[in-house]
Amino acid sequence: MSKKLWGGRFSGNTHPEVELFTASIHVDKILAADDILGSMAHAAMLGKCDILSQEEAQLLQKGLLSIAQKISTDEVEFRIEDEDIHMNIERLLKEEIGDVAGKLHTARSRNDQVALDLHLYLRRQTVDIIALLLTMQETLLQLAAAHRDVMLPGYTHLQRAQPVSLAQYWLTYSAMLQRDISRLKDSWVRVNQSPLGAGALNGSSFAIDKQYVASLLKFDGIYASSMDAVSDRDFVIEFLAAASLIMMHLSRLSEELILWSSQEFNFITMGDAFCTGSSMMPQKKNPDVAELTRGKTGRVYGSLTNLLTLMKGLALTYHRDLQEDKEPLFDTVKTLRAVLSVYNPLLGSLKINASSMQRATEKGFLNATALAEHLVKKGIAFRIAHEIVGNMVAHCVAKDCTLESLTLAEMQQFCETLDDSVYGALQLEKIVTGHDAYAHNSLSGIEDQIVLYQKNMLETQTWVNEKNHLLEEVLTSFSL
Ligand code: ARG
Predict the structure, then answer these.
(1) Exposure pattern of 268-280 as b/e (b: 16+ CB <10 Å)?
(2) Would the pLDDT of 149 be above 80?
(3) Which atom number of ligand 1 is nearest to the Cα of residue 322?
(4) How do strand 193-194 and strand 221-222 relate by DSSP bridges?
(5) Which of 117, 128, 385, 453 is deepest in the core (most CB within 10 A)?
(6) Per-residue pLDDT reduced to its tens digit, 412-427
(7) Closest atom, ligand 1, to C-alpha of 85
C-alpha cells in the first residue's frame, strides 16, 4: 500500500474497497493533457510571484513537459492508489524530478485544479464540436442547393399537407444546427473563465496572481468568487443542455431518414456503407446509423439529468459528489463526436428518389390550401373559401379523383365564380416554386436562406479558426 499524498493525519491504510470506490483515475485520465497544462501555468505563476524560485518553477515545468511526452508515448502507468489524475501526475513528477515536485501544489487545491482542468477540456471540445457541426451544415447546404427542384409533400401530423421543395427540408435542419452552433458559441464566455487560485474554497495566504495565470492560459476572465469557482458545474450543465438539443435535432432528422428510407415512403436510399444487414433475413438493409443516433439521444439527455440531479442538493462548496460530473460529460463529448463524424458522410450517401417524392405529392390534395387562397383572391372570405374547398375535397374523395381533374362545370357547382384560371392555381410546381414570393418555399425564399447560412458559416469558420489559433498559442507557449 503506497503512502497517500494526503496521508499525514491518517493511521493505517485505506481499505482496498474504499480505494477502488473513490478512485477516478480510470475516468479522469482523459484530463491528463489539461492537467499538465494547468500545472505548468500554475508553476510559472508561482515563479513569477517569487513564491518559488525561478529554478524551481523551471524544474517543475521541465518535469511536467517530460511527463506529457511520456504519456503521449504510453510510457507511464497510472495507479488506482493515487486516486485521480491530479495525484497520479504529482507522483510521476516526483519520480521525474524528486522532492521539488512537492512544491507544485503550493497555493492550490485539487478543488480549483479539477475545475481548471474541466474548463480547459471543455473549451477545446466546444471548438471541435462546433467545427463538426459546421461541416454538417455545409453538407446540408450542398443538399439544399442540389434539390431546389425536387418536390415532395410537407407534412403536419404526418399527413400530407402542402407541396414543398426538398431544399426546404435541408434548410430547416440547417437552421436548427445554426442555433446549436450559436448556443455553443455563446457558452464560450462562461467556459473560458479561470477558477485557478480559488484553492480549496477560499484562496490561500500567498500573494498569487490569478490574472497572470489566466492570461497565460488565455482565459477571458477569472471567477470572482472562489467558493463559486470550486463548487459550481453550471458550465458543464450548459454544455450538456446544448448537447441535448443537438441530439434532439439529429434524432428528428434520423427519424425522418428512417421513415423516408422505408419501402412505404421510398423517398431515399441510404448508401450501403451506412446500413447493416440482418443475421436472419437476407433481404434486409437497415438504417442503423440513424437508429443509433436516435437511440444515443437518450444517453445524452440522461447525462444532463444526471448532472442537474447531482448538483441540486449540494451546499457550498466542494463535495466529492462532484467527481461524478466527469463520466456524463466525457460520454456526451464522445457521443457527439461519434454521431457527428458518421452522420455527415451518411448524408452525403443519400440517393434521392425524386419520382417517388413527386408521386407522393399527387395524392392527398396538397393544392387544397392554394385553391382556398385562390378563392379568397376572387373576393370570397377565407372561412367560406375553406368550406367550399372542403366540400370539393369530400366530393373528390368519394369519386377517388384529384381536384385538378374536375371539370370547370363540376367545380362551378361548388363555387360559381371559378373560371379557367383555377387550373393554374392548382398546379403543384407553381405552388412550390413561385406562387408567392413570401413563401419560404419560393425559389427566392430558398435562395435567401442559402445566402444567410453561407454568411453564418463563414462567421463560424472564422470563429473556429480564431479559437484554434488561441488554443494552439497556449500550447506552444509551454512547448506542449
Ligand atoms: N478527483 C476529484 C474530483 O474529480 C478531485 C478533487 C478532489 N478533492 C478533494 N478534496 N477530495 O472532483
Answers:
(1) bbbeeebbeeeee
(2) yes
(3) 12
(4) parallel
(5) 117
(6) 999 999 999 999 999 9
(7) 1
320 is written with which cell numbers?
A: 466529492
Mean pLDDT of the chain: 95
Q: In this model, does residue 443 exceed pLDDT 80? A: no
Task: Check whether 360 has a pLDDT greater than 70.
Answer: yes
Paired sense of beta strands 159-165 and 268-269, if any: unpaired
> Of ligand 1's atoms, which has the minimum distance to the CA of residue 84?
1
Rounded Cα distance between 403 and 275, Å, is 40
Q: Whose CA is nearest to atom 11 of ligand 1?
A: 320
C-beta of 231 in contact with ligand 1 (< 6 A): no
Cell numbers given for 180: 446549436
The amino acid present at 175, given as its one-letter code, is A
* pLDDT above 70 coverage of the chain, percent: 98
320 CA to centre of ligand 1 in angstroms:
6
Mark whether 66 is an active-site residue: no
Q: Is 440 a catalytic residue?
A: no
> What global pTM score does this model have?
0.95
| Gap from CA of 225 to ligand 1 centroid (Å) | 19
**Taking Cα atoms as reference points, which of 85, 76, 77, 39 lies closest to residue 60?**
39
What pLDDT, on the 0 to 100 scale, is given for residue 72? 95
Residue 349 grid cell: 450517401
**At 242, is the pLDDT very low, low, confident or very high (cuts 50, 70, 90)?**
very high
Angle subtended at Cα 110 by Cα 106 and Cα 113, rounded to the nearest 5 degrees? 85
| Ordered domains of the chain (ranges, CATH) | 7-103 (1.10.275.10), 110-359+449-477 (1.20.200.10), 368-426 (1.10.40.30)
Catalytic choice (11, 157, 205, 279): 157
* List of long-range contacts for 463-470, beta carbons under 8 Å, 24+ apart: 463/130, 463/185, 464/127, 464/130, 464/131, 464/134, 467/123, 467/127, 467/188, 468/127, 470/218
Q: What is the helix (H) or strand (E) element at residue 93, kind and residue range?
A: helix 85-97
- In single-letter form, the type of residue at position 23 comes to A
Q: Quick check: 84 and 113 in contact, CB under 8 A?
A: no
